[in-house]
Task: inverse folding
């Protein structure tokens, strides 16, 4: 009964409790072995999760939504939302190359992205403040902008956007001059240093960057590296409010 086994161990615990309660109301007992009719004690086995949920009168619930919140009620109404799939992604707005800490050229990245079906990428190498990443200073960034312009004339059916992952300094200022940032298609701001600042100072630092008219995205808001680095101390609610007020995107990258 692979379907029920997979569903059971995928969880979450809260989700499994919710569907077990639904099954009990229908006179059914759910387990990793299948679904058992409490009256006849017959156990039905399932080869896939879709048929398991269908037996409960539910639309299939993707694992990403199994949180024990609203998903069972939605599934009962056949109203589970469409989740983003690889084919829905049209481009990548955070790409590093061998100009900083990446491994491939701008052209190679563009061609690989086009092969995946993307329509565009943004080249957002590190700025010079990220010293260990061979980041770009003003002069190198201007050279990169020129190269991207030439490549856009050569790569058919695809657009390469200019950008940067600019460092947010300890005082909240940005690592490159505003007149240069204003020329770019996208500016991603990020904290890479002085990560031990106390919460108030760190929050003000990030808010100052978010409020810059040239910043489009805040990268890795918590600066956490799983298993390697603890998150910074920052008032995320204040960051969320400022991002909403300034129409600044927040990067979600599972870090």
Result:
């Amino acid at each position: 009964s692979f379907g029920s086994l997979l569903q059971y161990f995928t969880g979450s615990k809260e989700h499994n409790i919710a569907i077990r309660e639904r099954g009990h109301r229908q006179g059914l007992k759910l387990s990793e072995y299948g679904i058992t009719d409490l009256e006849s004690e017959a156990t039905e086995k399932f080869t896939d999760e879709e048929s398991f949920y269908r037996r409960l009168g539910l639309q299939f619930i993707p694992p990403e939504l199994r949180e024990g919140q609203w998903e069972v009620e939605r599934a009962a109404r056949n109203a589970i939302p469409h989740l983003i799939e690889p084919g829905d992604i049209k481009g990548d707005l955070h790409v590093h190359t061998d100009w900083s800490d990446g491994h491939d050229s701008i052209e190679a990245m563009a061609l690989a992205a086009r092969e995946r079906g993307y329509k565009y990428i943004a080249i957002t190498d590190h700025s010079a403040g990220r010293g260990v990443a061979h980041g770009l200073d003003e002069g190198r960034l201007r050279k990169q902008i020129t190269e991207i312009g030439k490549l856009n004339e050569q790569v058919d059916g695809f657009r390469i956007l200019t950008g940067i992952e600019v460092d947010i300094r300890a005082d909240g200022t940005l690592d490159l001059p505003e007149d240069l940032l204003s020329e770019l298609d996208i500016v991603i701001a990020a904290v890479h240093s002085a990560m031990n600042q106390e919460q108030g100072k760190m929050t003000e630092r990030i808010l100052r960057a978010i409020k810059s008219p040239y910043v489009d995205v805040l990268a890795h808001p918590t600066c956490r590296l799983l298993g390697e680095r603890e998150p910074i101390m920052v008032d995320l609610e204040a960051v969320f409010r400022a991002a909403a007020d300034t129409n600044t995107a927040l990067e979600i990258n599972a870090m």
